[in-house]
Amino acid sequence: MLDTSNYSLQTQCRFICFFYHSIIGFMPPHDSPSSGSVMTIDGSPVELSWVLPQTCDSTGLGSTPHSVRQRRQVRFAIEPMHPISGKLLKGSAVLDYLMSPEGNLESFLFPGTEDDNEIPDGSRFFVGFDFDTDGTVSLRAYYLPAPSPSCPIQATPQAHGPLSLYDINYDPLRRLVSELDPALMQPLELLLSYFESLDDRHKPRIQILAVDCVTSSQNRLKVYCRPKEGSSWSDAVRSFTLGGRLCSSEMDVAIGHMRRLWDNIFPQAPSHVDCDLHLPAAALHSELGGDSGQYCRDDLAISRAVERFYDEMDSGHSDTGNNKMKVTPDDWVATELSAAM
Collapsing DSSP states into helix, strand and coil, what is residue 194? Predict the structure, then answer.
């Protein structure tokens, strides 16, 4: 993946050395009795992905490497575990080893566990790595709170912090954001005003909290949610616009693009029919990776759908004027996938 993404040999060596020096030690033993990771479908604690470019230059595809492939970025994420016991490791211990503690979020989610290296039972921690072309590695931290003691998927009641998995009580999130950066409270309240206007079935349930390991001025708090119900086109538009709270000509253009992408990826539930997908609510990503097999037939179907979307935008089948996307040549997604595999 590094080679076909056109990283320089020096950069590839740096990343490979980093992986063997710093990452292998977070992999559990093969005969570990611990349960598998929840990060991937097959229980593997490692997930690889790459970010495909939005545009490309036809000169070089299939010949020289100095084309679209030089802009592809390799990413991977792990669920760190002890190399001997196989037990799940706590985020602050992992990040302290990799760079520096990311204590604010973790101490909020798991109070009273500051001296432990293992994550509290029922909770999960993932760490993501972005390989940049200059040889640097960027880190991202993902936290899954434990289920509520009354949740049927929680085998035994466990002590946990103020947030629970699938929570629809957003007050702890307000407290967390006010502690991290009070300037974020205004956009958060806009978001939560939409969440709290929904009925219980459609309220987004908190699953993951994530931060980038960068300076505070560049950082962001990412909240991953999923409702119990609501996977139709109209549900997607309602969520994307926060129930109409985000309304502008730019938003109209974005909705037009999203409708075309939706119709290509979900032909079984086209936007004009507006029916549920009858699947777990799917997130649309601009990178290839993750649990795409749960939402479509396979990765090839998704790749072809994304390719059709960009082909339509490039051929002028769009009423967005100067907002058309330029992508050439044909089959660029398939070409990229073939090169990477």
Answer: helix
Strand order through the sheet with 73-78 = 46-51, 73-78, 124-131, 137-144, 205-212, 221-226
296 contacts 259 by C-beta, under 8 angstroms: no
Pairwise CA distance, residues 265 & 330, whole Å: 18
Beta carbons within 10 angstroms of residue 278's beta carbon: 8
10-residue block means of pLDDT along the chain (341 residues)?
A: 85 89 86 73 84 55 41 86 87 77 62 74 88 86 85 53 88 91 92 96 93 81 90 93 95 94 91 80 38 64 83 63 47 62 56
Alpha helices, DSSP H, located in 218-298: 233-240, 249-265
Tokens read off for 241: 């616009």
Cα–Cα dist 203/144, whole Å: 18
Give DSSP secondary structure letters for 122-185: T-EEEEEEEE-TTS-EEEEEEEEPPBPTT-TT-SS-----S--BTB---HHHHHHHHHH-GGGH
Structure tokens at 155: 């085998």
Question: What is the token pair recorded at 338?
Answer: 């073939």
Pairing of strands 73-78, 124-131: antiparallel
Q: Report in angstroms the alpha-carbon separations of 340 from 69, 286, 312, 318.
A: 9, 17, 24, 31
- Tell me which amino acid residue 135 is: G
The rounded distance, in Å, linking the Cα atoms of 208 and 45 is 16
